[in-house]
Design a protein that fits this description.
The protein is of the alpha+beta class. It has helices at about 30-40, 45-55, 55-60, 65-70, 75-85, 115-120, 140-145, 160-170, 225-230, 235-245, 250-255, 295-320, 340-350, 360-370, 380-385, 395-430, and strands at about 1-5, 70-75, 90, 100, 105-110, 130, 135-140, 155, 175-180, 185-190, 190, 205, 210-215, 215-220, 265-270, 285, 325-330, 350-355, 390-395. It folds into two domains: about 1-155, Nucleotidyltransferase, domain 5, CATH 3.30.420; about 160-435, 2-Layer Sandwich (Nucleotidyltransferase, domain 5), CATH 3.30.420. A six-stranded mixed sheet has the order 14-10-9-17-18-19, sandwiched between helices. Strands 11-13-12 form a three-stranded antiparallel sheet, with no helix packed on it. The protein has a two-stranded antiparallel sheet with strand order 1-2.
Length: about 425
Amino acid sequence: TVINLDADGKPLRPAIIWLDQRRATTKSNLPWYWNGIFSLIGMTDSIKYFHAEAEANWIAQHQPEIWARTDKYLLLSGYLNHRFTGKFIDSVASQVGYLPFDFKSGKWAAASDWKWLSLPIKLSMLPELAAAGTQIGTVSAAAAHDTGIPEGLPVIAGAADKACEVIGAGCLTPEIACLSFGTAATVNTTTKKYLEATKYIPPYQAAIPNHYNTEVQITRGFWMVNWFKEQFGQHEQARAETLGVSPESLFDELVCAVPPGAMGLMLQPFWNPGVRIPGPEAKGAIIGFGDVHTRAHLYRAIIEGLTYALREGKERIEKRGGEKITRVRVAGGGSQSDAAMQITANIFNLPSERPHLYETSGLGAAVLGAVGVGLYADFPTALKAMTRVGKIFEPQPQHVEIYEQLYRKVYCKMYARLQPLYHDIRQITGYPHGIE
């Protein structure tokens, strides 16, 4: 989510949130040698995708008068820090957007970096960077007046939502994976070494300074539960209103009404294209329909498909990093579903641990604050005191085998076999748009 500010620090336009689908249609200004390099390593589509997805390019193309007046270009975290402290400063661990940022060094990109040529952003527009968990200022008098928060209270550099989620789940070491069942579904580990889970796609800076999160993301993750609710969940919505509960709480009944494997209904959850794996041509797919299938089978296939995709991400991290993941902790709203947790244990064939509260992102931010103000000497001490595992779901051997076969023999082959068709669909229809 990005915000343009004028020379007085005032917003020039409404913020563009991270889920926004607008894409720039301008061409990148990269010189021939950069284009040649990216062509040689198979990154041309990914670089085009970066240029099209960058909100700065859309604003510069469609609202040039706004861009001309832009003095500062901030992520939401940087804007809130400015409002609280009066400073233009942000956390290294919050830089997850389409910005000229060097994820390996944790600094703004060098002047020679290609990103400066693909974006209209200047270094002077960007905030100072600080390590997560360090004090970046205090609450100003103006902020105290506007919010009711006491003046002079320390303001601590935070981190991106997923980075906070990882430490809130207690995932400090690379053998523990954090699965996030949120709007975007992710699998993350924390590591001291720079590790690209997908070649040429950098890991994010972790909430713990000098560490990285090896994230693999399914952009439309448990957002798909909401998609299902809107398109097929009218019955549950009506029942939920009568019972005074959320419709999502009733969806476990659908899962439990269908056997593992959804009677052969297999779903590839790429409702939104990716950058490399999946690529910018990717689409969602459902195969295996028969006359026995109902919306209950579809819902179970959604949960299973997302979990297959996260397992594939886990195995990619293991292969690239050379270290086995032996434990998984599941956070985010979707982790409240016992059915989803059990499916995860069965597909991963590992115990699935639910943290004692599912909002681990908020807990991770609290951990950063606690370390930042000195309540705890370091992150391991803080996490030992503030986090713990709640319920654990063990794999069910009678179901593990069917998932293993469906994953290896079907799911792992789907993308490679469908990818040529996705390319043809994009060429014929122009969808997904803005990346040609």
